[in-house]
Amino acid sequence: LDKVRFATDWRAQAEHGGFYQAVADGTYARYGLDVTILQGGPQLNARLLLAAGRVDFAMGANTIQMFESVQQNVPVVTVASMFQVDPVIFMSHPGVGLDRFEDLPKATAFIASDMRASVWQWLKQAYGFKDQNAKPYNFNSAPFLADKTSIQEGILTSEPYAIERQGGFTPNVFLLHDYGYDSYSTTIETRADTIAKTPDLVQRFVDASIVGWYNYLYRDNAQANAMIKRDNPEMTDGQIAYSLAKMKARGIVDSGDALTHGVGVITDARMKSFFDKMAKAGVVPADIDYRRGYTLRFIGKKVGMELRPK
Amino acid sequence: MIPNRPAIAWRDIGVPLAVLLAALALWEALVRWKNIPPYILPAPSVILAKLIEDRELLFSSLLVTLGVTVEALIVATVCGVALALLIAQSKWLERALLPFAITLQVTPIIAIAPLLLVYLQPGNAVLVCAFLVAFFPILSNTSLGLASVDFGLRDLFDLYRASPWQKLIYLRLPSALPQFLAGLRIGGGLALIGAIVAELAAGASGQGTGLAYRIVEAGFRLDIPRMFAALALISLSGLAIYGALAALSYVLLRGWHESARAQDE
Amino acid sequence: MIPNRPAIAWRDIGVPLAVLLAALALWEALVRWKNIPPYILPAPSVILAKLIEDRELLFSSLLVTLGVTVEALIVATVCGVALALLIAQSKWLERALLPFAITLQVTPIIAIAPLLLVYLQPGNAVLVCAFLVAFFPILSNTSLGLASVDFGLRDLFDLYRASPWQKLIYLRLPSALPQFLAGLRIGGGLALIGAIVAELAAGASGQGTGLAYRIVEAGFRLDIPRMFAALALISLSGLAIYGALAALSYVLLRGWHESARAQDE
Amino acid sequence: MTLGASAVRETQVTAPALVALRAVGKTFPSGLVALADYDLDVREGEFLTLLGPSGCGKSTVLRLIAGLANPTAGAIDWNAPQVKNNIGVVFQDATLLPWASVFDNVFLPLRLKGVAREAASPRIEEALAHVGLLNFSRALPRELSGGMRMRCAIARALVTRPTLMMMDEPFAALDEVTRFKLNDDLLALKRRFGATIVFVTHSVFEAAYLSTRIVVMSRRAGSIIDEIEIDPAIPRDDDYRSSRTFADVCRRASRALRVSIEEATP
Amino acid sequence: MTLGASAVRETQVTAPALVALRAVGKTFPSGLVALADYDLDVREGEFLTLLGPSGCGKSTVLRLIAGLANPTAGAIDWNAPQVKNNIGVVFQDATLLPWASVFDNVFLPLRLKGVAREAASPRIEEALAHVGLLNFSRALPRELSGGMRMRCAIARALVTRPTLMMMDEPFAALDEVTRFKLNDDLLALKRRFGATIVFVTHSVFEAAYLSTRIVVMSRRAGSIIDEIEIDPAIPRDDDYRSSRTFADVCRRASRALRVSIEEATP
Ligand SMILES: Nc1ncnc2c1ncn2[C@@H]1O[C@H](COP(=O)(O)OP(=O)(O)OP(=O)(O)O)[C@@H](O)[C@H]1O
Ligand SMILES: Nc1ncnc2c1ncn2[C@@H]1O[C@H](COP(=O)(O)OP(=O)(O)OP(=O)(O)O)[C@@H](O)[C@H]1O
Ligand SMILES: [Mg+2]
Ligand SMILES: [Mg+2]
Question: Are the beta carbons of E69 and C264 separated by less than 8 Å?
Fold first, then answer.
């Protein structure tokens, strides 16, 4: 077996389920891989660890990050995207005049600094969000709860659950994807030299991970969930169930291009569309060769599609 | 000939305790009266209940955090004192080394933690972060102490041709003790914060998670009572560390240093 | 009758500068020789280039951060000294108040910053965070200083029936000066870190973003040279603050305190 | 009073006691008994000198009177408590503020009494002139010699013109000529302002020259071995120094001192 | 040598100079000239006493000889530099370690020379017995009286049996009986170990009793006003104290002192 280290972007959760599934049910082993998952955290910069050679693969949060790798000449390449829909959302309190997306720009917005450096820039340009309304979000929704006229960023599969349970109401949820933010998410990135030296290893990792995701979504995922809870003892069954349900309902993993080309697929057209939007918003310079940042070589092979229930 | 008074009287424990309880009662009353929801500000009773409910989880996390704190404090003490001694040897060494120490002090570790993880293993990164925070006060205060040796005594040691080593052991270290201990009291609290910040920043890997992670996690889940329970544990640890170091100071200084004796004897 | 030596000799600037330059040269050599890519460890020359390239952005951020630092340091100094004075008034006040001060010190601000945002405006939250970090060393050291008054002098003031206020002004404050200044030197650096951590945690709003945000942003963008450029600005600010406070100490203490005079005069 | 001496008055002076120590005891936390069952009257207007071997408790007596320490037994009674507000003390160490100039050190007691700098200036300069430190008024204590430091402390005690002055070996670090001069200055001041003085010295000659009463203490818990009264009416001058009375006082004090020391040494 | 006295030997003793101050100047950063063009030989085996008004530079001379300060002009020549390794000093202040017991304070010089505690113990106890502090060996300095602190410092200086001993007013804080006893002890020690002693005192009698040479300094930059030799062969006892020679020495020294002070006072 080839030893492989994979860094995720957050603590173990259902959003990483496919990878845990592939470890737990022996898919990676069948592809000749011995995978160790290094779970992330608020400050863990997975791409930096990848670039420094501390891990072999890393989970990328969104496509903007990929553009930035290109801009900074960091030899990291995106080889697959497990999510077709970036689950990033805005939430607002219901019934305070913030029920439509058009209402949001005027509200105080709690956003994390990584969003501030990326999506926010586009939101400003595309929808007129304002810097002076931005306040930091440190993965604690109390300030949002305390201020009824505020909005907060979140992940479709997690923050609304906490708000429902602790805040005692169901917030309005706006999936940015629905408003034109067509970034990829939960991508697999690796170093350019890994691709050059051991393309076979990369292919096996991508294929096995895709298989893992199909299994996680559609088959028995108890082992994977047990593993998630072992890595992250705070994780509850309720949260996992909620996430899974939301992922399925919104087609986070398996929708759009994935329906025809299989999970993990990336297309040049969507990349171009997203890049043009971001370049127009000034999030990234228009003159970078963003195509260097990804490759279609390992995906679109319909791997594992047979696992999807008819 | 040293008075045999007990090191700690009931007042030293009782009074702070009483004041603390009063403050908690006020808090409880405020929360109840204003009907503040627990996710904004939980009442002390709620926090206590949570503390008891989650005791296993929280106390095992506390142990992890305290482990890092103690380790960091020890390393910071050793390094701080060692560097202070080195600096005290000559003005030239001071000029050459102090800028680095200051640079280390003002480097915002949470901001660079992602980088530290690139250079170091996570466990070491946490320790380095906690160490960096606790280190400077100890260095700075010990330096002041070493520089404040009475000139008459310095002359005496010069006269008897004391070696640098002897000056250190018999003169400079005892002279610097009061300031060093004050530095240690500052450093103790900072090591605790350092350990927490470091854990947040450099994150321990899965198995042993400290209180910092519990706090963030609880915040993420909006389990604010648990967050406060974890904060309460941290505060109590801080008080305990301070108390221990203050008692140490008292034992080491009573009898001779002004700061630790009563006047009319 | 005080010697008219200049406060700062060329050595006090030249030597640290030379050592610093040597260290930078070593770093540059290492990076070039080992061919370390800039996103792992950028060479000083690259950082300098970035610093010049992004000067407008970085310096305006620096101003924001320094503003918070200075404000926090001033507030921390005032509060630290005031509380130290209060505590010095009586053992009872000390017993009642010190636990709160310690609790504040060990409270990990980044962990509670989200809550601070609930209770306070962001600008104030940042200030409170930075203040909390700088406050304790000043309190602790000033307390030690106030407690270390020579007993003979204390007797003298008692004898002349000096009011508590007079004792403070003419005896305790001057006595505590060396320790207070050491506390200030520690606090200065901590206020800077505090300002940065606070900005990360409690964040200033859109218009003026400080260096902390620049660092994190650069980290996300993998623009590590810019991150180092911002860090370099922070280090330089820290050195400048320390230098200014050290010069202040020298001016205030030379002539009478051991720590600021040469021996053979 | 077994060691009688001829020309010395043995009768009690009738002046009222300014402060009276009654059966005073002072035991330190270390267990050391510095004073036990100690009685002493300080009478108004007198020049009382405590003589005794090193460590017998003289400084302790002064500290108790000054209120800087509390007796562990007995009582200290003040007949005129307002006197307590104008005490001057010269400690055994100079005890100067290290950060303040000689001028500011001498200014201190006046400053504490609320006197403005300009108003105090002439008195400070007078006091500095008395002790010969006028040229050093801007020097810091560390720039002074041991004797100069002590003189600064003396000037500080004189500057308030106290009604009760306590001096603990103030002239020990001074050369004899300066010492004689300051002795005479002190007597002149006392005459001018009618102060009461409690004085500690190791010089029998000085004691005999200055005092109206000498109390010789024993090393054994400060018990009093002998008490010698000297007629305050005798003018203190060179004639007195060569007089029979002076010689008698000296001899008697010396003898008492020797007894005190021999008694204590086992 | 304008103030001649009959029984005092005027001839130069031939003993070699142990250390010689040649045209030494000491100007402090404050601009104060403490010594200018100062010449002094310390001869082997002598008991040299410096007399002079307060602030004339006596302590400064001792500090220069001890190597604790550097002259700003001139040179200090040592004939036998190894002597420098066994100097004993009693400073004008007691200068004790505040955190160490009396025993440990006296032990300090031996400890610094590498002597083990057990080996040093008898010598320390002997020294403490000399100064009468045996019962206080476990006390901390702050628990001592002023005189006791000074005696502790004296014990510390004696315990190494130095070849060159410098003492800056060591007995000023002591009563006369103790002082006389310690004077004799010092002479006995000197006889036994043949030490050279440089001594500062304000007591003309003490100087006359102990010294083989007295140097009287003037306040004017420490210039030397008179130098008095006393035959070392004369036994120092009560007979000497009542001898003609003693009286002559005292008178001459006093006169020189007075000249020195009057010369300086403008
Ligand atoms: N550190 C110093 N800085 C400036 N001046 C000093 C310093 N030390 C001593 N002096 C000055 O030098 C002169 C001589 O001082 P020194 O201590 O030698 O006098 P001394 O003869 O020992 O007097 P005393 O009998 O009072 O001890 C004094 O005028 C004093 O003010
Ligand atoms: N703070 C203290 N703690 C314990 N013992 C003390 C303290 N202060 C003084 N003593 C003891 O009390 C006794 C009397 O001391 P005191 O200072 O009154 O003596 P003194 O007569 O002034 O002597 P001297 O002439 O040497 O100054 C001494 O034996 C001393 O050891
Ligand atoms: Mg005394
Ligand atoms: Mg002197």
Answer: yes
**CA separation for the pair A17, A158 (Å, rounded):** 14
Q: CA–CA separation, E183 vs E201, rounded Å? A: 12
**What is the domain partition of chain B in residue ranges?**
43-254
Q: What is the DSSP annotation of B37-72? A: -TTTS--HHHHHHHHHHTHHHHHHHHHHHHHHHHHH
> Has residue E122 got a pLDDT over 90?
yes
Query: Is C265 within 8 Å of E29 when comparing Cβ atoms?
Result: yes
C-alpha E147 – ligand 3 centre gap (Å): 6
Write down the domain spans for chain D: 1-86+162-266, 97-161
Q: Which residues of C touch A69 (CB under 8 A)?
A: 222
The pair of three-digit structure tokens given for residue E18, joined into one six-digit string: 């142990």
- Name the class of domain D1-86+162-266: alpha beta
Tell me the angle at which helices A222-231 and A17-24 cross, rounded to the nearest 10 degrees: 110
Contact E139 B174 (CB under 8 A): no
Interface predicted TM-score of the whole assembly (ipTM), two decimals: 0.81
Ligand 2 centroid to Cα of residue E67, in Å, is: 34
DSSP string, E86-109: GEEEE-SS----TTS-HHHHHHHH
Cα atoms in the Cβ-side hemisphere of radius 13 Å centred on A221: 25
- Paired tokens of C217: 């942003």
pLDDT in tens, D111-170: 999 999 999 999 999 999 988 899 999 999 988 999 999 999 999 999 988 989 999 999
Strand order in the sheet with D47-51: D87-90, D164-168, D196-200, D47-51, D213-217, D224-229
User: A94 pLDDT exceeds 70?
Assistant: yes
Q: Is C256 on the interface with D (CB under 8 A)?
A: yes
E146 CB under 6 A from ligand 2? yes
Q: How far apart are CA E194 and CA E44, in angstroms?
A: 9
pLDDT reported for residue B10: 66
pTM of the entire structure? 0.83
CA of E92 from ligand 4 middle (Å) equals 6
Of E108, E111, E139, the CB nearest to B1: E139
- Write the DSSP assignment of A199-258 as a string of letters: HHHHHHHHHHHHHHHHHHHHS--HHHHHHHHHH-TT--HHHHHHHHHHHHHTTSSSSTHH
- Beta-carbon contacts of A184 under 8 Å, excluding residues fewer than 6 positions away, are A62, A63, A78, A81, A83, A84, A86, A266, A270, A274
List the single residue in A48, A139, A167 with the smallest CB-CB distance to B220: A139
Please report which confidence band the pLDDT of residue D14 belongs to, taking 50, 70 and 90 as the band edges.
low
Q: What pLDDT score was predicted for residue E8?
A: 47
> Distance from A244 to chain C by nearest Cα, in Å?
28
Q: Which CATH superfamily is domain C43-254 in?
A: MetI-like (1.10.3720.10)
Is D53 within 8 Å of B25 (Cβ atoms)?
A: no
DSSP SS3 for A58: strand
pLDDT for E240 beyond 70: yes
Tokens linked to C142? 């000033």
pLDDT, one tens digit per residue, over A10-32 is: 878 889 999 999 999 889 999 99
Per-residue pLDDT at D2 exceeds 70? no
| Cβ contact, residue pair E28, C265, below 8 Å | yes
| Torsion angle, alpha carbons of D11, D16, D17, D18, to 10 | -140
Q: Is the CB of E148 under 6 A from ligand 2?
A: yes
CA distance D142 to D125: 20
- Which tokens belong to E118? 């057990």
Give the model confidence (pLDDT) of A231-255 as tens digits.
Answer: 887 788 988 999 999 988 988 888 8
Q: What is the pLDDT of residue A146?
A: 82
The Cβ of residue C124 has, within 10 Å, a number of other Cβ atoms equal to 14
Strand partners, D76: D21
